Amino acid sequence: MNSAITSWWDTNWSGDRSEALVFGRTGKLIRVRGFGRYRKPSVGIGRSGKSRRANFELRMRAEGAGRKSAFRETGRAVVFRTNMSSKTLKIAALAGDGIGPEVMREAIKVLRAVEKKFALTINITEAPVGWAGIDAAGKALPDATLKLCKESDCILFGSVGLPDRDPTIPKEERPERAALLRLRKEFSLFANLRPVKLPKELSHACPLAKERQGTGIDILVVRELTGGMYFGQPKKTEQISAGASKATILRAIDTMVYTTPEIERIAHVAFKTARLRRKKVTSIDKANVLENGVLWRDVVTTVAKEYPDVQLEHMFVDNGAMQLVLKPTQFDVMLCENMFGDILSDEAAALGGSLGMLPSASLGSAGSTGQFGFYEPAGGTAPDIAGKNLANPIAQILSTALMLRYTFNLNDAALAIENAVGKVISDGLRTGDIFSASETNARKVGTTEMGDAIAAAI
Ligand code: IPM
Ligand code: MG
After folding, report:
1. I want to staple 140 with a disulfide (CB 3.0 to 4.6 A). Which of 97, 178, 322, 385 is the partner?
2. Tell me, how does this one assemble (predicted)?
3. Atom of ligand 1 at shortest range from CA of 159
4. Do 64 and 111 fall into the same domain?
């Protein structure tokens, strides 16, 4: 049987509901959404990750490139990478400290609206982490919380760490290291994606002059997350003797370590994601001083040979920090080791209007969808504004969009969230961090009202 549909890509099945990117009759990629019934369900869709041939009968609505037509198809197609073997999305929600709980509440509100609109079943289990974990179970990452994470499809994370709390708790047991870094390592989440986008309506919130913003800032920071100085050994503070005076001198040591495979795998993520964007990777290093920088540059150059369609540029990190404020529009994907990525992603976030707008996805494999992931706002606990209904929930809400896209392959649901955020921004709703009195039609709102508006716009 001949079919107009020659192949499937990124197919997403849940029961008899389907979403897919399909090569249509013309060979062009179109997006389809619809409901399918398999004529022979037994040869239907395989388990997660398998490619199968399947008979199908679909009624679909094609969207994309301005077309909106309904059509019916029957035939046989190869289904690649099916991901949704069950309808239930199992999410561990770890709100943490500071503004974490209040922005998480809004993100869950938005998720519930998505659940309704897309007829999903979303199973969200909340568990304590960070100081909330220490208070509840004596540990920043309680055993029960870790167990829940292992049993879930993904982790939706808030933020942890309150620098001023209880100085008697040793640094190794404090939330940043004992919960956040531990989870990143535990699940081998080496690829951290931080998409920075300045909406045109928030041009005033960007610290750069209008002419430097060009036609818009749109940067993806790809940060290596499980190596470098965050984890390298030795890592310690030691006493050293101080010659004749015998005064105690302390010496702190952090070690920057990267191996070839660690650099290769994150480089692949950067090139793969660049292919879906403007096809340019700027690799950040300090090759003029650091051994790590020399190796980083060599390995990235080698990996780049597999992606001849993607332009590669190398940049020293100090220059990168400067170029971000001079000409941010030159960047598409910025590939960074762990600490450089931490620093530059905050700088880039400010260019995108506010750190409160920057979501992130931490993944454990190179660019594939349907995988375990960890989703968190890139900003911190912001203790100064916690509990005051002032925090911007958008970074947390956009993190749930990344979650739907990368772990559940629900691109339409992810887009629904991103579009809803875009709508409330263009409607003029602003939390304090993105508010300017000079804007006409802007209205200052609190965390809850912002969440309500986004949920309503789904
Ligand atoms: C981030 C944060 C964390 C980091 C802190 C809270 C440990 O700044 O995710 O960017 O340094 O990675
Ligand atoms: Mg940071």
Report:
1. 178
2. Homodimer.
3. 6
4. no
